[in-house]
Amino acid sequence: xxxxxxxxxxxxxxxxxxxxxxxxxxxxxxxxxxxxxxxxxxxxxxxxxxxxxxxxxxxxxxxxxxxxxxxxxxxxxxxxxxxxxxxxxxxxxxxxxxxxxxxxxxxxxxxxxxxxxxxxxxxxxxxxxxxxxxxxxxxxxxxxxxxxxxxxxxxxxxxxxxxxxxxxxxxxxxxxxxxxxxxxxxxxxxxxxxxxxxxxxxxxxxxxxxxxxxxxxxxxxxxxxxxxxxxxxxxxxxxxxxxxxxxxxxxxxxxxxxxxxxxxxxxxxxxxxxxxxxxxxxxxxxxxxxxxxxxxxxxxxxxxxxxxxxxxxxxxxxxxxxxxxxxxx
Length: 329
What we know:
It is a single chain. The protein is of the alpha+beta class. It is 28% helix and 25% strand. The protein has eight helices and 20 strands. Strand 9 (144-145) and strand 10 form a beta hairpin.
């Protein structure tokens, strides 16, 4: 805690232009609209500022928590008073490279990235046009929808590796992408800075039509009018979490302000005033009931903080995405 206070004071002195928010309620920085204050939230304006902030945090032996757009994360009601969060939301450079590939910094929204590709007659990211996350967070979890995943379009990723204060460029293969996973989840301290996407030429109108089709499906089937963190559970092998939850009779089940969406059982939504405790209890109930009904142990897809939090064990224990240094989309 002392190191954190010393770091904050030095950051104020050395980076007076940094957007630094102290005791900031995280309900304002995540799509769930849930969460108490974090001790400090730093938002560098560019890669130079990111590098300097990382240097000062490392100097004080601190590992920040990395935050993108906050669309797949649940913060605790009581806050995180011993944590420094580093947000990459202002890293938003996006342009075509001379060879036709797309360069995007970590804070670019996936919707903007997909739209940019469409405008330049590039196909391969239509599925991402409705995903409410950023490039950095999307790469961290290999975001996907409607049969597409970011791994299919990524050529390389540039990271700032905190332990060594060094910049590395990783190939697609080195990123070790899997279903909702990547190398970056297994190696805390990787700050995703930017990525290069290699796409195919296509007809802009056909690409736009496909994006409209997929987004219409999303609006029809998903509860986009209510705060949530996206899919609450990962797709289990050989099935779908939403179908298992629905079959267990849980659609519409409510605890406090948290509800299994009446529109899509794979979503836990905030119907008004939900606390993180409400969400925890509802997810426990879902996991227990689904296991009793189908003997499938669902694994959370959203990131749940703090890092030592575990859902009650129902069936085989599964780890939660709760590693310091991991990123929220």
